[in-house]
Design brief:
It is a single chain. The chain is mainly alpha-helical. Helices cover about 65% and strands about 10% of the residues. The protein has a two-stranded antiparallel ribbon. It binds zinc ion.
Length: about 70
Amino acid sequence: MSGWKEKIQKKYGPHHHCVICGRAVPEEKKYCSQECRDSAITYEKKQKKRSKIQMYFLIGIMAVMFIFMFLLS
Ligand SMILES: [Zn+2]
């Protein structure tokens, strides 16, 4: 029952999995299809937008705290 992973690796050679759908892809490729590449780009853009919003949010909180500290002192 052991070594099925090895067997798969022997059969398909060095490979990894599509970041989006998890299908096995050749090692030099990151995504299995154009579709997955597109959704990966969309996802990355969304993530970037979200982290930007989070950053602004943190800066906003820090600014408010700074103002409060300034007012209270
Ligand atoms: Zn895919």
